[in-house]
Amino acid sequence: MKVVGRAIPHESAREHVTGRALYTDDLWPRYPQALHAWPVQAPHAHARILRLETAPAYGVPGVVRVLTRADVPGKNDSGLKGDEPLFPSEVMYHGQAVCWVLGESEEAARLGAEQVVVEYEPLPAILSLAEAIAQGSFQGARLQARRGEVAQALRESPRVLEGELELGGQEHFYLETQASLALLDETDNLLVHASTQHPSETQEIVAQVLGWPRHRVVVQCLRMGGGFGGKEVQANPYAAVAALGAYLTRRPVRVRLNRLQDITLTGKRHPFFARWKVGYSEEGLVQALWMELYADGGWSLDLSEAVLARAVCHVDNAYYIPNLEVVGRVCKTHKTSQTAFRGFGGPQGMVFIEEVMSRVAASLGLPPEEVRARNLYGVRPSAPGRPPLDCRITHYGQEVKDAERLPLIWQELLQMADFAARRAEIARFNAQNPHRKRGMAITPVKFGISFNLTAFNQAGAWVLVYQDGSVQVNHGGTEMGQGLHTKVMQIAAQALGVPLGAIRIMPTRTDKVPNTSATAASTGADLNGAAVRAACEKIKARLAEVAAQRFGVHPADVVFEEGQVYSLWRPEERLGFAEVVRAAYAQRVPLFADGFYRTPGLHWDKGRMWGKPFHYYAFGAAVSEVEVDGFTGQYRLLRVDILHDVGDSLSPLVDLGQVEGGFIQGLGWLTLEDLRWDAKGQVATRSASTYKLPSFAELPPVFHVRLLPRASEPGVVYGSKAVGEPPLMLAISVREALRDAIAAFGPGGVVELASPATPEAVYWAIERVRQQAPVSGD
Amino acid sequence: MGEISFTLNGQSVRVDGVDPHLSLLAWLRQQGLTGSKEGCAEGECGACAVLLLQPDGVGARFEAVNSCLLPLPCLAGREVWTVEGLGRPEALHPVQEAMLQGGSQCGYCTPGFVVSLAAEYYRKGREGFDLEALSGNLCRCTGYRPIRDAALSLGAPPPQDPLAQRLEAPVAPPGPLAYESPQGCFYRPTSLAELLARLAQHPQARLLAGGTDWGVEVNQRFARAGVLLDLSQVPELQGLVWREDYLEVGAALPLSELERRLAGRVPLLAAWFPLFASRLIRNRATLGGNLATASPIGDGPPVLLALGAQVVLVSLAGERVVPLEQFFQGYRQTVLAPGEVIKAVRIPLPLAPLARFYKVAKRPLDDISTVAAAFALHLEEGRVAAIRIGLGGVAPTPVRAYKTEAFLQGKPWEPRTVRAAAELVRGEFKPIDDHRGSAAYRSAMLASLLHKFYTETQEVAV
What we know:
The complex is a heterodimer of chains A (778) and B (462).
Chain A: H1 13-18, E1 35-41, E2 47-53, H2 55-58, E3 63-67, E4 90-91, E5 97-103, H3 106-115, E6 117-122, H4 129-135, E7 138-147, H5 150-156, E8 159-167, E9 179-184, E10 190-194, H6 199-210, E11 217-221, H7 236-249, E12 253-256, H8 259-265, E13 272-280, E14 286-296, H9 304-313, E15 323-331, H10 346-364, H11 368-375, E16 378-380, E17 389-391, H12 405-416, H13 419-432, E18 436-449, E19 458-465, E20 471-475, H14 484-496, E21 503-505, E22 508-509, H15 524-551, E23 558-561, E24 564-567, E25 575-576, H16 577-586, E26 592-598, E27 603-605, E28 610-612, E29 616-629, E30 635-644, H17 652-670, E31 702-707, H18 732-743, H19 759-772
Parallel strand pairs in A: 1-12, 10-11, 14-15, 20-21, 30-31
Antiparallel strand pairs in A: 1-5, 2-4, 2-6, 3-5, 7-15, 8-13, 9-10, 9-12, 11-22, 13-14, 16-17, 18-29, 19-20, 19-26, 23-24, 24-25, 27-28, 29-30
Helix pairs in contact in A: 6-7, 9-10, 10-11, 14-15, 15-16, 18-19
Chain B: E1 4-8, E2 11-15, H1 24-30, E3 49-56, E4 59-66, E5 79-81, H2 94-98, H3 110-121, H4 145-152, H5 162-168, E6 177-181, E7 184-188, H6 192-201, E8 206-208, H7 214-221, E9 227-230, E10 240-242, E11 246-250, H8 255-262, H9 267-272, H10 279-282, H11 287-292, H12 300-306, E12 310-315, E13 318-323, H13 324-327, E14 328-330, E15 333-334, E16 341-348, E17 354-360, E18 371-380, E19 383-392, E20 399-400, H14 402-408, H15 415-428, H16 439-461
Parallel strand pairs in B: 1-5, 7-9, 8-9
Antiparallel strand pairs in B: 1-2, 3-4, 3-5, 6-7, 10-11, 11-16, 12-13, 12-16, 14-15, 17-18, 18-19, 19-20
Helix pairs in contact in B: 14-15, 15-16
């Protein structure tokens, strides 16, 4: 029986449910000498620091050290682009940490921080996308992707529409805030425990700040209490502060942000603004699209260019648009440095095109699901006597492999969701209820898998087999709840032919596998799983030779299965895995191996935005139904049906969890997660009481999720597909369902709906729709 | 001087020399019991949930509470169970076992869910599983479906279950406490006389009933008090008495307890409870506390204003009864004099036949109101015989819509009247813009909720 593909619980589930699973900030009670850190946060969005006086802090009992710019032995920068000073001389956003106080207790450090005197000269601040665009405040390159003759095609289109939309950001709100614990080890080098998605880069930044070679720094990530992209680069400054503190005081230093600090200090999903112009036929076929994207990058460049690139590559979503031009800029504002967040710009690009599709449908009086279906990638019938149109090439030159899965998923999902019958039922409901209206929508997802930056698409592994047949697996990926370690454990057990219990996944450490990529872009299992498999196959090949001698057969005829080894010739004659391992040891055969993987076939011309940036695409679609209260704009999600393509699932329980969880997180972004900054540039929604995540109440009573069957993806480990990010965008169906319900309060037509679609936004949308209604009684 | 002794996971513990502002959560984690997590430090996420044993007639029951909001001295004389006390990886508790099938992803919120699940699992007389028990727990990974399935899969505890057996044995109510330290003193009186004497001695003392608001002040705004007075063991503040013309609710009676004991007999409150914070908070929070904090966006006042409630205040000088409308003096200000506490809330009887509570918020569960409105209406032959409209979120204090009420008085309850009244109530207040909602939306809601109320009264009639 195959181990890969089995629905098993998360590999740490037993530790999770008992509270035994350790996270970075659970470690400090083991170090009674540990110091606690507290930041001094600036009360201005933009200001010059005129004076910083730390002496008064030392008057507070328990204050041990105040870390400032002068203490940095290496480079005072916590990023790789040179624009993120760890200790700034110019405050670039409200709440930025200007220095850090270390104390015997958190309380002492906090009280010390209150005593630090900082004198500021406030400077003008740019606090919105509109201001940044108006003032030309940009950072990074201008991105442009183009295929076809957009201007001409717009002129020739029978119908043209223009529009614009602004999308709000999203706070990651990983339940575990940023945390690090740094200590000098027995050799006077640094061990840094960090809640980071990218231990290698954390190592690099710590070494950069200390001015050390990287080999003096080991970073370990046990696991994270959620990451979602928020710990891809933004864990690094806090690890660097802990490391600097440990180096200077020779005591363990703990940096752990409380929720308020985390929300005010760290970056979020990028707010976006788009303007667009679309040309289309009377049948709703989109012929030309021009779109301009602006991403609010905040105070530093961070990953914003890459986020924008992914947005540019996803404004087509699942639709073939023959003439398409997208240009994009990253705006520089005096806000937190916006960063990676599940989907990484893809969701924003896709919301924009779905907005366009719904406008196109409304302008033609066609059902939106019809217009969407007509525009899907794939092969389309054309005029009589002409060959069918091949509509599989994206606006950046990549062929959408397996594009026919999109219409297939679409049709199957319409059946599965009983779409047509429910449409009629909703119409009946709406006719009978003046104050409550229901709405439903289906939207597709096509999401490119691979890092846009080709070099990141590599991974390493290091597998050790001990003489008793037990196995340690090291790889470069980090566990943040997504089930990577569970999948890797299944892959290793499958590849070596041992039971799951023989495999131990080691904590991610930079001294086991060097130069790793971030666990991001949904690629964790594709890359690390393939590297682990490669290492296991090496060891297995060596063991097969040993076993082949014993069986007197060719090594290719040796089978490893669930801890037993046998030959195809005499399956009844079996050796235990450990027996073969011991025999190999006796013959001086190495029982450990590295593995490496690089995604094949990728190429990308960054300047022209042309090539093949993605190994393949993940597909899916969702149907959502909502009910809206016309008095308040409040609403309920009634039912959701999802059909999603994960290839041959490595671990169905894990994949199901990614689809469901991603959907609900996307729903949060598009409906209730209303991230606000006030007039001073301070994050106004900086706590769990003001920033609302989806709760139990948002879970739809009916929630059907199916994984697409017979979907093997050749060229990916065990035929699987990545699943981390794509399902988030299935939630666009909720936004479109709300729009459908809102329309039912009026005569139909265009529905202007802000994002997030909070009850207030829905209420105003209903009011606008009502005003379109003809006055009755005339 | 003094020490805090309590029972933790079945073992006796004695603590001294700690700051009385230290939370149970922080203390647990310092001890290496790191299963309980801090996700928000304001009682919103539930990752820190623990079980408190609560006397329950002959035996006891478990109540899940937020340990981040509990000052450690509150534990004195009590019995608490953390996630570590429920089971081990090699010997899981049934609720832990149920969570294995996808109930955890990153695992950080999981111990809190396990604790909330356990509290409901052990509820005596439980039929099925009340998902309301999980209203105070947030998960960022799973989307909740597997947690819901885990909850719904739970059977009854087997009779030999040690914790179920523990609930059959009596629990002594916690006794008095006088804990004094350089960082502050914590007193727990066990009679009203003792409370008032302490309060006379320390007029600036901070009063805690459930402490769910104070805990937030301590954690988020670093509030500190020289003297803390725990009201939870004063029997005179814990009553629930039905008189002929009013119902009297002890100011320090936890809302969950009130909910259980009212058993739906005040329909407006029955509809209101599930919208008030979460189960974890309601296990500690009280009516008295919700009134005394005098937040303009608290959800207690609108309902109590609509019910025509009065508050009974008591001090060494004696008792006085104040209509709730007069209790609020300004933003976060009340008529409470130094040395005075809220003893009880009186709800006049009979109740208005038609009453509704509406909460407009971004999230239906565990959110703070953008606008809250409660309506209580008495119709006689189709005319308004009496109406009270209690509102939150539209003024610096909770308010009644007097002008609108007066306008409606005696008028026929019909669309034309309601339309005019809706325009009136829309203009009666000048709400503000903030991150919860715009002033325009709040004003619109004033009118809209009256329409909604009218519509629902018609549905009742039909």
